[in-house]
């Protein structure tokens, strides 16, 4: 790794290190060696390794929220398409989170709080998009608060390393699958709808006697 002088670039590289390897297995000395910097530079950012970890993940999740807002600001499609793209931003962010990172995040209360606040902020935006989609007729009428609470509960569970291991999925795969089912539903066809590819059968007219 080349020596990094630009502070923004430095923090981006440090964030990537934490996302891929977590924090627990790295000492401050090892982090400094991997970053090709002095310990002093690290301590200028935060007083402890844990505080440094929290500062970098706060930076990361703030950027994800910013990217999600950009999707909305630059949206060209309808509410359903915008919500789908908004969900994809979060799922893509999840693809960069290693198991080691997720374990450290859940173990450290300050880090867990940052993740909770990030997911709650995304849920608020999702609620607004759902309400807009219902008003515009792109989503079926539903209890929006119930859906949002389901999103929050799923977000809490799908980020758990033990669940992901049991399910044999990565975090982004789990969220992609959840969003797909939530937006599309479980039914292959809804009651009263013809099977795909088949024309509806027309009842035979009764012949008058």
TrEMBL record:
Q: Quick check: keyword Zinc in the entry?
A: no
Residues folding into a coiled coil are none
Record keywords: DNA-binding
UniProt xrefs under Gene3D superfamilies = Homeodomain-like, Tetracycline Repressor, domain 2
Q: What is the name attached to this protein's record?
A: TetR/AcrR family transcriptional regulator
